[in-house]
């Protein structure tokens, strides 16, 4: 699938993985709606990308994924500017063990909300042209992070939600759904000040391998987006750069779209 002229919406797009994903989409000819809670970072990133890829191809929206009204408004404004929607990446995430409700609300409920809105605007039954959703989970869904049980639980939830959603979305909505599970990436999420949590993170890093760059995750994201033959993929990106796939249970493989 060519990305030329496609329209994407990315949450948590101001920095880290989301920023890298927004940029690789722009590099490949897509128009991108960039959502983020951090307005100053979002505006700075948008200004930089505007100079590189054309301001007309970018929309920045200050949006909190925990707010139903803000997310609905962001999807509406995206449609108003670009007239369609083809790709949604639910990327926004935090590590906050002390405020577990906020952590779950951002990391899991935000993904569910973003996916439901994506189906509303991309679903063929609603007049959309179909598309693809990629939910950013984490390798901690398979290698639990002892120092962050709430974060780990939220990412397990993202994987489970994505697996089940993918079973019917292609047939019902014309939308492919994938989960991307990176090992630890060089983003602000890794800048942990709690000594105990940091020690446990260092132990897990020894198991999962070297810290990855956001650009490496963006490249794998792009693979999932352009490959129309696959649906319901749970892609694990290990610290050594190797890729593993978590298959759907036997007899429950999600349908894939025939390439056009």
Report on the architecture of this protein.
- The termini are close together.
- This protein has an eight-stranded mixed beta sheet with strand order 3-2-1-4-5-6-7-8, sandwiched between helices.
- Helix 3 packs parallel to helix 4.
- By secondary structure, the protein is of the alpha/beta class.
- Strand 4, helix 4 (100-122) and strand 5 (131-136) form a beta-alpha-beta unit.
- It has helices spanning 16-27, 39-53, 68-82, 100-122, 149-173, 195-208, 214-226; strands spanning 7-11, 31-36, 58-62, 87-90, 131-136, 175-182, 234-237, 243-246.
- The relative contact order is 0.13.
Provide a brief overview of the structure:
The chain has 260 residues and is an alpha/beta fold.
* Mean of residue pLDDT values: 90
Low-pLDDT segments, ≥5 res: none
State the major sheet: 8 strands, mixed
Structure class: alpha/beta
Percentage of residues in strands: 15-25%
What's the total count of β strands? 8
Helix content class: 40-55%
Major beta sheet, strand line-up: 3-2-1-4-5-6-7-8
Distance between the termini: 8 Å
- Which geometry do the CA atoms define? globular
- H/E element string? EHEHEHEHEHEHHEE
Can you count the helices? 7
In terms of topology, how is this protein built?
Layout: E1 7-11, H1 16-27, E2 31-36, H2 39-53, E3 58-62, H3 68-82, E4 87-90, H4 100-122, E5 131-136, H5 149-173, E6 175-182, H6 195-208, H7 214-226, E7 234-237, E8 243-246
Helix pairs in contact: 1-7, 3-4, 4-5
Keywords:
260 residues; alpha/beta; eight-stranded mixed β-sheet; 7 helices; 8 strands; globular
